[in-house]
Amino acid sequence: MENEPDHENVEQSLCAKTSDEELNKSFNLEASLSKFSYIDLDKELEFKNDLIDDKEFDIPQVDTPPTLESILNETDDEDESFVLEDPTLLNIDTIDSHSYDTSSVASSDSGDRTNLKRKKKLPDSFSLHGSVMRHSLLKGISAQIVSAADKVDAGLPTAIAVSSLIAVGTSHGLALIFDQNQALRLCLGSTSVGGQYGAISALSINNDCSRLLCGFAKGQITMWDLASGKLLRSITDAHPPGTAILHIKFTDDPTLAICNDSGGSVFELTFKRVMGVRTCESRCLFSGSKGEVCCIEPLHSKPELKDHPITQFSLLAMASLTKILVIGLKPSLKVWMTFPYGRMDPSSVPLLAWHFVAVQNYVNPMLAFCRGDVVHFLLVKRDESGAIHVTKQKHLHLYYDLINFTWINSRTVVLLDSVEKLHVIDRQTQEELETVEISEVQLVYNSSHFKSLATGGNVSQALALVGEKACYQSISSYGGQIFYLGTKSVYVMMLRSWRERVDHLLKQDCLTEALALAWSFHEGKAKAVVGLSGDASKRKAIVADRMVEILFHYADRALKKCPDQGKIQVMEQHFQVVLMCWENRLYDAMIYVYNRGMNEFISPMEKLFRVIAPPLNAGKTLTDEQVVMGNKLLVYISCCLAGRAYPLGDIPEDLVPLVKNQVFEFLIRLHSAEASPEEEIYPYIRTLLHFDTREFLNVLALTFEDFKNDKQAVEYQQRIVDILLKVMVENSDFTPSQVGCLFTFLARQLAKPDNTLFVNRTLFDQVLEFLCSPDDDSRHSERQQVLLELLQAGGIVQFEESRLIRMAEKAEFYQICEFMYEREHQYDKIIDCYLRDPLREEEVFNYIHNILSIPGHSPEEKQSVWQKAMDHIEELVSLKPCKAAELVATHFSGHIETVIKKLQNQVLLFKFLRSLLDPREGIHINQELLQISPCITEQFIELLCQFNPTQVIETLQVLECYRLEETIQITQKYQLHEVTAYLLEKKGDIHGAFLIMLERLQSKLQEVTHQGENTKEDPSLKDVEDTMVETIALCQRNSHNLNQQQREALWFPLLEAMMAPQKLSSSAIPHLHSEALKSLTMQVLNSMAAFIALPSILQRILQDPVYGKGKLGEIQGLILGMLDTFNYEQTLLETTTSLLNQDLHWSLCNLRASVTRGLNPKQDYCSICLQQYKRRQEMADEIIVFSCGHLYHSFCLQNKECTVEFEGQTRWTCYKCSSSNKVGKLSENSSEIKKGRITPSQVKMSPSYHQSKGDPTAKKGTSEPVLDPQQIQAFDQLCRLYRGSSRLALLTELSQNRSSESYRPFSGSQSAPAFNSIFQNENFQLQLIPPPVTED
């Protein structure tokens, strides 16, 4: 299946200029076609669904699909019916070798075809579609065909076959093979063989272009290897002798081919190779005695369609003189359809052509067949049951007889009529797109083969009559291209790309037709479109760009014909174009027509001015449309003054000076045409200044840059400047920004070295007064920015500096003051400018930092800035304390005390010190380099106690450099008990800290005790709980470092404090408080159970009068809760100990087994020197075997530095394992070896039993194995398998905990030393099953 190319490189290949490049590009095209053909079908499904309708294909709307029988038996409008062919027509079994006799078919009318009745002529749409086909002569091939005929007596060409190579057969039996560059690659056969076999009558190339089949006029068949040029098979018995080969064609199966002889019979050729011998088996598919077959066409599919369900049947279409047949060769021979021609001219040539097309969202093969002037289309489908259904589509009526039918893609067909005229037809609409005369090709006809003249002409009259116009072997299609074989040449034809079709019309000056064709591409109505694919919007955008180019081309041609003077009708046409453009807002087109058509440049400006001037003069806001027109006007004026055409191109050089002068004269006009009496002078410049002052002045600045210093240019510049000053200075309609833009423009012009302009200096003084002394205080920042731009543009030379500074300070233009002070290097005064400017006051810190740190400033300048910053330090701190602190730490670190003295406001001092000392404030200060004295830190802590007491503890945790005693005194002064307790704990006075917390808790409890009834929502009980939790945390943090007596001194007073309120009579305490206090007391008991022995706790509780004198039930809850906790922890301890003991026993068993296990070397040679271990007979050499299986000589390991001395013993490392894992030496600590990597195996040393007995220096190996290294190696393996803490470490930790306090249950309570405990590690996990046993 070949579909039209859709890729851009395909489009480029179709636009080749010379015919010598055609073939090469055509073959490159095929590579793309084979790749994109299936994509093309998918796109066809996607984009052509709207074009495929039931009416086109005569498909009725039915509820159930028709059956095969109903299809085969229904009749059409011409009484032509599908008839299931008699199975006896096919020779299923082997036929008799003499059953090749043919019988003639009577042909009653074989007269002139022009006398036959014709159908109505197809509608001619050539004028709409342009030139659809491009045909080129393949000069290289054509020249070599002629040369071969002259030099080697090859004869005339007779047949052509095209794939990625081109094969041409000749009348003297030669096959010429050409490559993509039209170079002769092979010449197959010889003239002697040609004398024996006759002319080549048919050619076929297989799918992969590796084999060529040649059929000869005397009936022989040869097969050639196209890679080597060797003859593979010479077949002489495939069909009855004495008949010519009319057709020979490969199927998709490379071992299967079909041939058709002049006797009208069809044979299947099966190629086999048995025991190295190539054979060919022939089977007759159709006997010519039942009606001669004169055309065959197997269904070919591209690789991307190889899985199509139809391809497995290997369909073959055959056309006899009376009917066509479609048969399946696989899996078994079967007739699927027959169709008689009906009434037809007996001299007409039967034609067949397959192609895959997309119909109703499915891709299926379609067979086109015809004989005469009617083309029938049959769509072949396969249903779910596996049966093939054939559906007749809309047929095509022609007004000429056909001798060839070719699909060029799924939508376009190319027909050749009997007078050698090509017709390009769109299949779906049946519209004729183009007609091409190809008589110059001098097409080769196959008449002699159909008449079998080489074998005596023993054919029927009917077949001989058909052969008069038979050209089957002269036309071959491949990759969307059609090759035509002439008597002395080869031509190729293909579809033009859409762009090439448009260009072809333009070259012929058919502009209207080219535009119409492009519009049809844009609207998607064009036929045979190549090179346009993808999204519809993108496709339209591409075509639209081309249409714009055509319109410009059209406008150029039309405008060039516009006379300067002549017939008024012609001039009116151009003015009508202008009017049409204006009405449709095509302003660019309007300007283009004026400029190119009439060389008129001023009229477009006048028309645009008339639109935007009235609203600007009235002070109204412009509409969007008017703004667009104003911008176009500015750009148009800029282009004219720069010598460029608008919107594209350049103004002719001879017109550039004239256009510039016209535009300047236009701009400086005193009044406009048809001006009203109220119009102000210089309306055009005034309008542009009001529209966009800055951009208009930029246009003038660019124009002044291009001006040459001739007298006229200087006069124009001065004239425009004078007008600008007169318009803007003498009017109050312009804003300060607009006036500033003008004087900035003037300052830049005056600052040029070659300046010739003159501006009165008093005007600059007036502008300064205007900007610095406004009537109102509006537009302050705008006026300041305008004046700053004026000064930076060079306008400062126009002012007296002292007066400028005074006026800037008066107007509070601090940026102007900064600009002036910086010129005079008065950097200290710039600090005042920043501090006074509310918009930039925070930038003062960066400015001071830059002056003091960046080199380039003198020490005197830095000192003045430093002193000014110190004088304003209070303002800086109040502005931003963090920035001020960072500045002081960076540049005033030695004067911090001076800064503190200057800060009299205590709140400012507190903010400053907090930013300076608290690292949480986010400033980047190196505290070590700062070297702040403790007294400053303590001063900050005292201020913190005053202004933010809740943050004192958090701040102390991050602060450094303060003295504990002095800080404790400060916190006691402000009665911050929690802070005092924290400092005492940090000091080490745990008991003192506890007493403070205990006193605070007691005071809270006393408050609760003396409260009234309404305590349910009172927050005081919450305060008691918070204070108690903090006290418990204090006790827990320090209990690990205290002995038993010291612990009791902490916990029992806390318990007493919680139980004391409960000693009061129950009547004095509300019941709700009693229950809450008991709950809090229980919390204290649970916490102290981890540190105090249970008997001591029970004894203390029972001694208490509240619980001791009451019933046991009152303390039952406390005791049961403590017992539950104890039982849980005791069970947890016992279970853990048992698991660890079992795990330790398992580990020790593995260690013992590893020590006693023997070593098995993997080879009997050293892994370093690769020699056998017994190589050294003359000297002692120990053999080192590792548990990994590697074997070494000890000397070899020593040379590789694989020994480690440890505790007086030599340890070895495996060289291979250590080098592959990047391990240089054996780790002394097994825990240092990375888990999951192969560790160096420890060695087992044994003496070599091949030592020389006579060698006194023979070294004896140790008789006992070294166990320590093996144990370490085994333990390393265990550690890798068990991803967790060492079992020995676990047991050691557990034994230490058990031995220190034998009566204390195992607890997970937090303590300071417990952070180093294995059990406290967040990643600690118990593995309750032993690790897997590893195999060595």
Automatic annotation (TrEMBL):
SUPFAM superfamilies recorded: RING/U-box (SSF57850), WD40 repeat-like (SSF50978)
Domain (RING-type) ranges: 1166-1218
Record keywords, A-Z: Metal-binding, Phosphoprotein, WD repeat, Zinc, Zinc-finger
Entries under CDD domains matching the protein: RING-H2_Vps8
Feature: compositional bias, Basic and acidic residues: 1252-1262
WD repeats: 193-234
Pfam families noted in UniProt: Beta-prop_VPS8, TPR_Vps41, TPR_Vps8, zf_RING_Vps8
GO MF annotation: an example: zinc ion binding
GO cellular component, one term: endosome
InterPro entries hit by this protein: Vps41/Vps8, Vps8_central_dom, WD40/YVTN_repeat-like_dom_sf, WD40_repeat_dom_sf, WD40_rpt, Znf_RING, Znf_RING/FYVE/PHD, Znf_RING_Vps8
Transmembrane segments: none
Stretches for region Disordered: 1238-1264
Record's compositionally biased regions (Polar residues): 1239-1251
Any one GO biological process: protein targeting to vacuole
Keyword Oxidoreductase on entry: no
Function: Plays a role in vesicle-mediated protein trafficking of the endocytic membrane transport pathway. Believed to act as a component of the putative CORVET endosomal tethering complexes which is proposed to be involved in the Rab5-to-Rab7 endosome conversion probably implicating MON1A/B, and via binding SNAREs and SNARE complexes to mediate tethering and docking events during SNARE-mediated membrane fusion. The CORVET complex is proposed to function as a Rab5 effector to mediate early endosome fusion probably in specific endosome subpopulations.
Family: Belongs to the VPS8 family.
Name recorded for this polypeptide: Vacuolar protein sorting-associated protein 8 homolog
Organism: Pan troglodytes
Gene transcribed to yield this protein: VPS8
